[in-house]
Design goal:
The complex is a heterodimer of chains A (121) and B (734).
Chain A: E1 2-7, E2 10-19, H1 21-31, E3 40-51, H2 53-68, E4 73-76, H3 80-89, H4 91-95
Parallel strand pairs in A: 2-3, 3-4
Antiparallel strand pairs in A: 1-2
Helix pairs in contact in A: 1-2
Chain B: H1 3-28, H2 36-56, H3 60-77, H4 85-108, H5 113-132, E1 170-175, H6 187-197, E2 199-206, E3 224-230, H7 235-241, E4 250-254, H8 260-270, H9 275-284, H10 290-306, H11 312-319, H12 324-346, H13 352-379, H14 382-405, E5 407-409, H15 411-428, E6 432-437, E7 442-444, H16 445-466, H17 470-475, E8 482-491, E9 494-501, H18 508-517, H19 529-533, H20 541-548, H21 557-566, E10 570-576, E11 580-588, E12 593-601, E13 604-609, E14 613-619, E15 625-627, E16 630-635, E17 638-644, H22 645-648, E18 659-666, E19 669-675, E20 677-685, E21 699-704, E22 710-714, H23 716-733
Parallel strand pairs in B: 6-8, 13-22, 17-19
Antiparallel strand pairs in B: 1-3, 1-4, 2-3, 5-7, 8-9, 9-11, 10-11, 12-13, 12-20, 14-18, 15-16, 16-17, 18-19, 21-22
Helix pairs in contact in B: 1-2, 1-4, 1-15, 2-3, 3-4, 3-5, 4-5, 8-10, 13-14, 15-16, 16-21
């Protein structure tokens, strides 16, 4: 579900597999405590095979929480399923992280204004 | 409920809906004009529900096709497309096709190429009806009459101040209820569905309700959306997308080119922290321009001054009587939903496996209850015996009650034939009425499942061969419309299903002649009428009768007979020349229980199904003869072949002095079973044998006796066949 590694003053979290309402409770249990570490967060989404609104909502919470405390919270390496969900929900612009779109369409969104990562604790 | 389980429920419900749709469509041709709107409505609702739920699961193939059907039904409902026979036929074909789509989705998780092509083909045909009626007033898919509220505002004279907004898009404000995720309602599904119905131009996700970390519940939904949406769909269609979340969520839909006041209503209705905030969102997602918003806020302020204290609902209802129909429709919908919920609460959907497990357990319980009773009797404690017998009574009742759980009415199976009869009658150019009686008769679910195919054969044959062509009927002084009747009733522990026609009847002489010709009956053998009629169900006979067409029944009738016998049932045929034929299928009420006759051989007990037992006689070595390894006795002047159960199943143990012969009859052949003891009747729950015994012949199942011992149930049919085949073989050798 997730792997955490702490380096460069930020928690690097790799989310994995299906992240839907069925995993939401467990994900919350393992993921939300990271928000209390008072350091920046880098969330790697490359291995997420499925995501629904409940887990997308959790990422929103993480972003808002970090921002309010002046830490960075960056989403990186969006997998295709994540991109699809973000596009459907209008989250690409909400997060504003750079999303690399596959194929010829090229990057659609400019790098976000506040997606800076690793803002020190 | 997991996704998979939810999907299963969907498939089951979709099939029910489709069945309902089919029967309503068939009704349409027979009902008065007065009832037509109601029926069309029901058909529409069925299609709509199938589509709506399919969209929740992302079953696009079903959604896309059903959507077109639904559109046409909507037009029919509004009286824009006239109801005619060809159209009903087309809709019936569409109904079948949707059923196929559902089936394919369930089994293969995708739709086959053939079905895809058929979808396109049917859509073209449907389009013919949609297009031809479109021309007089092409309102780009907008609804008309009765739904005026849904119409674009541009059709209404605008107030001087209340100008329409220059916006070709719908605006949808969604605030999902907290429990949406838990209810399986993911905003993604709705947004994707909207995209199917039109184009989502812009989505703004709102985090205003997302709480702080401390108050956050990962399974609650805090999301809201403002959506700019381009679609030709009617307001009702868009509203219907959100049918499942209407109760818990806030949904507001503003039509394209709405008046500014509609947006004010929207803002009021959302009742959020700041009007400004929503206003900004409306601008953000392109619903309004800055100047429009400014004008709107000014209007709102003025309105507030004037109408201080008035509640929002009043404002809506007074200012905008166009909303009247919508409110009415909403109220009506709510009543309908409540009714549907009430109906649902009356019946529960339970997995058949769970039910089987329960019945199995209850069977075990009865068995071990009987065992305990036996122990109590051995102990001889009268109090214990009495309370045990009370317990046993309760257990028996419980078993009967749990077996009733499996009972379903046969009506649904019968109704399917409406369609078969209708289609066949059209093909054969006959006028046929199907009369159904006894649809409430209940029988075991497993029987219902197996009886479908045999009934189908019988009904087809009755329509095809049983009923004469209209001209012949007229000549015989009968009404030109033929009647096929389906009837079911209970008869002393059996269920009887009748398929009747009022056709020409069977010609007994010709059937007998045919049977003689085929060597199935001797030249001088005398047969009763029912024995003669029985030939039409014999293998090898039916095909021939088809060719020579002895008023006759067609191919596959022997299959009917075989299926019925497999269910431990039998068939009877009544026929009067000129008056018609009735074929009766007589089946045991349930496949799970039989009345058995218990016999003992050595230490082992065997159960013979009671209905095949003819009589019991004493076995005497003196009368007994053997020829070619087969023993016979003389039973009142008839040769009775014997099966020695002891030898047949290699039962060990001392052979007693006195033995008995149980005379059983199957396939018209009597056979004697030689056994040691007769142990009496016993009602028993059949348990299938494990796969280890799959190859075992002569045994059809097992059961557990009161004393806890296993008894094997004899496959009398199989034993008789082994006997009747053997002498023929030895005859050719000698």
């Amino acid at each position: 579900m997730l792997q955490v590694e702490s380096r460069d003053g930020a928690s690097h979290v790799a989310l994995q597999g299906e992240l839907t309402i069925y995993q939401a409770a467990e994900l919350a249990e393992r993921f939300l405590p990271l928000l209390r570490r008072e350091e920046g967060l880098v969330i790697d989404l490359s291995d997420v095979s499925d995501m629904d609104s409940s887990c997308a909502q959790m990422l929103m919470l993480a972003r808002r929480h970090c921002q309010a405390r002046g830490h960075g919270c960056a989403l990186v390496n969006h997998s295709q399923p994540v991109i699809d969900v973000f596009e459907t929900l209008g989250l690409v612009s909400w997060f504003g992280d750079p999303v690399v779109l596959p194929g010829e369409s090229g990057p659609k969104n400019r790098p976000g204004m506040d997606a800076g990562m690793g803002g020190g604790a | 409920m997991s996704m998979e389980a939810a999907l299963q429920t969907y498939f089951a419900e979709a099939r029910e809906m489709l069945e309902d749709m089919e029967s309503r469509l068939l009704e349409i041709e027979h009902i008065d004009a007065g009832e037509l709107p109601e029926t069309l409505n029901a058909v529409f609702r069925a299609a709509h529900t199938v589509k709506g739920s399919a969209s929740l699961f992302g079953l696009d193939g079903i959604v896309d096709f059903t959507h077109v059907v639904e559109n046409l039904l909507d037009r029919m409902r509004d009286g824009e497309v006239a109801v005619e026979e060809d159209l009903i036929s087309l809709l019936l074909r569409c109904q079948s096709h949707i059923t196929t789509l559902v089936d394919e989705t369930e089994t293969d998780e995708q739709i086959s190429e053939d079905s895809r092509r058929l979808s396109q083909h049917l859509i073209v045909e449907l389009g013919g009806y949609l297009a031809s009626e479109d021309k007089p007033a092409d309102k780009a898919g907008l609804p008309t009459a009765g739904e005026a509220a849904d119409d674009h505002a541009e059709q209404f004279p605008a107030d001087a101040d209340d100008e329409t907004v220059d916006n070709e898009c719908w605006h949808i404000s969604l605030r999902f209820g907290r429990s949406s995720f838990r209810d399986g309602m993911d905003p993604i599904s709705f947004l994707r569905f909207l995209d199917g119905l039109g184009t989502v131009r812009q989505v703004i996700i709102l985090d205003d309700w997302l709480p702080d970390l401390a108050d956050y519940d990962p399974e609650s939904c805090y999301l809201g959306f403002e959506i700019r949406y381009m679609s030709q769909a009617s307001k009702k269609e868009i509203e219907d997308v959100f049918e499942f979340i209407r109760e818990d969520s806030d949904i507001h839909i503003v039509a394209p080119y709405s008046r500014l006041s509609d947006y004010i209503d929207l803002i009021n209705a959302m009742g959020e922290d700041s009007d400004r905030r929503i206003g900004e969102m409306l601008i953000d997602c392109g619903a309004l321009t800055e100047s429009e918003l400014a004008k709107m806020l000014a209007m709102q302020a003025a309105a507030e001054e004037a109408d201080q204290g008035r509640r929002l609902g009043e404002i809506v209802s007074q200012e905008d009587d166009r909303l009247g129909p919508v409110v009415d429709a909403a109220a009506q919908k709510q009543t309908q939903m409540r009714e549907a919920i009430n109906r649902k609460q009356k019946s529960l959907r339970v997995d058949a496996d769970k039910l089987d497990h329960l019945i199995n357990l209850v069977g075990e319980l009865v068995t071990s209850g009987a065992g305990t009773f036996l122990q109590a009797q051995i102990l001889g404690n009268p109090e214990l015996i009495e309370s045990m017998s009370k317990l046993n009574d309760l257990l028996e009742e419980m078993r009967d009650a749990s077996l009733k759980l499996r009972m379903v009415a046969i009506g649904a199976t019968f109704t399917k034939f409406q369609r078969v009869v209708r289609d066949m009658a059209a093909d054969l150019d006959k006028d046929v009425d199907l009369v159904i009686t006894g649809a409430d008769t209940e029988l075991d679910k497993s029987v219902v499942e197996k009886i479908g195919d045999p009934l189908m054969h019988l009904v087809r044959n009755a329509v095809d061969h049983g009923l004469e062509p209209a001209a012949e009927r007229a000549a015989a002084g009968k009404p030109e419309t033929g009647t096929i009747s389906l009837n079911a009733y209970h008869d002393s522990g059996n269920i009887v299903i009748e398929v009747g026609d009022d056709g020409a009847g069977l010609d007994a002489d010709r059937i007998l002649a045919k049977a003689r010709e085929k060597g199935m009956v001797g030249e001088d053998q005398q047969l009763s009428r029912s024995e003669i009629f029985d030939f039409i169900l014999k293998p090898g006979f039916s095909t021939a009768s088809q060719v020579s067409n002895i008023s006759g029944r067609g191919v596959g009738m022997d299959v009917v007979r075989r299926n019925v016998i497999e269910m431990r049932g039998r068939t009877e045929i009544d026929s009067e020349p000129g008056e018609g034929t009735t074929i009766r299928i007589i089946l045991p009420l349930t496949l799970a229980i039989i009345d058995g006759f218990v016999v003992g051989v050595g230490q082992a007990a065997f159960v013979v199904p009671l209905d095949v037992v003819q009589e019991c006689v004493e076995f005497s070595e003196a009368d007994h003869e053997e020829k070619d390894g087969q023993s016979y006795i003389n039973l009142r002047g008839n040769v009775l072949p014997l099966v020695n159960i002891r030898q047949r199943f290699a039962v060990r143990g001392e052979r007693p002095k006195r033995r008995s012969v149980v005379v059983v009859k199957a396939d018209g052949q009597s056979v004697g079973l030689v056994v040691d003891r007769l142990m009496g009747e016993f009602q028993t729950v059949i348990k299938p044998l494990g796969p280890v015994f799959a190859g075992l012949s002569g045994i059809s199942g097992s059961t557990i006796m009161g004393n806890g011992e296993v008894a094997l149930i004899l496959d009398v049919q199989g034993l008789v066949q082994q006997i009747t085949r053997r002498p023929q073989r030895s005859a050719t050798h000698s």
